Amino acid sequence: MSTPAELAAFFARCSWPRALTQAERDLAFEALYVRRHEAHSYVCQRDEIADSWVGVMEGFLSVQDTTLEGKLVMYTGVAPGGWFGEGSLLKPEQRKYEAMATRPTVTVHLPRKTFGWLLEHSIPFNHFMLSHLNERLGQFIAMVKFDRLLEPTARAARGIAGLFHPVLYPNTDATLRINQEELGWLVGVSRQRVNTALTELEAAGLIRRGYGHLVVMDRQGLSRYPSPAT
Description:
The chain is an alpha+beta fold. It has helices at 4-13, 22-31, 86-90, 112-121, 123-149, 152-162, 180-187, 191-203, 219-223, and strands spanning 33-37, 42-44, 52-58, 61-66, 72-78, 83-84, 98-101, 105-111, 175-176, 207-210, 213-216.
């Protein structure tokens, strides 16, 4: 398991505790707990009642669902420094998705009770959450737009750039540990087409490829990658 010092360092890097008073930060930190997950294990399951807000300390999560035909649909990925599941905590209903660790992953959990207490007592935390939800909504609207309007290489470029979102994933460094299959799930194209897209993006100087990972050379360039006529 992660050490208390590692948890404290992760907490200090997160943006939302900075909105809290010292007493509120202390309360939140004391409530946190850590879970370790093997590759391809579930962090949360569809139809369960959410009991915590979930952050990623190490690894990578796929937020996804499976159709009645058995097809996997990946809604988004969560890189280190990102938090997810706030929507499921704000309304008393079952989760509409599942989250799976695509590689060995360490998650940090803020219990529902503490999350609710912060919403009730901290106006700055409410402001942070409104901004966070607004960015999340914008992310999903952009995904729908890209899916309908962009060709596969541009979709791959925007999908990679989205995992470096400065609000949703503020602590993601330049190395993104994601494989071609995972990226294909994220942007809705085949693994073979992802390979072609990555070759094109590397030739454009926007990424550098490695085994099981990408190094992002120009996030802004990825987010503005053109969509040539097809």
